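help with this record:
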Amino acid sequence: MTHILVVDNHGQFTHLEHRLLRDMDGVTVDLTDNTTPPADIDADGLVLSGGPTMADIGHCREYLTLDVPILGVCLGHQLIADELGGRIEAGDYGGYADVTVSISDADDPLVGSLAPDTRVWASHADEVVAVPDGFTITAESDICGVEAMGDTDRDLYGVQWHPEVAHTEEGEAVFENFVAICE
């Protein structure tokens, strides 16, 4: 069994990430608050959930030093970029929207299977505008140049959109691909 830990950054969809992973075969999943000390983290992979603000991310920056694959969703995606030398800014669009995302790296283990494009539910109040060294932009849209990014050497991945919500057409595939990375 692959054990995934969903880190709660107090986003409104965190429970959906937990439920989607819980319902997958071969996966055990737990939900933990972002105040859990890094020494207490024991998992094959982490999902850093979305959330309202970078001011309330607990120990998430420290989790990036753990030797496990990590998937950042929305705020989690932005946090990875910010902590590792990328740049985030306020998005031009803002709010939630149905967005067509173009997959720019069909070989990417997280989003490559969604190529050539997919429809997602995204929030762009803030967004990554420059990826950290070692990362590749793996998806983009008309409203956001970094819809997804990945560093396959460190198994760190992020998506601006919300794969856990029903409005995202192939969201479950993103989580299935992440579990495969963690195995």
Q: What stands out?
A: Residues 28 and 137 are 30 Å apart (CA to CA). The first strand starts at residue 2 and ends at 8. The chain has a mean pLDDT of 94. The chain has one domain: 2-182.
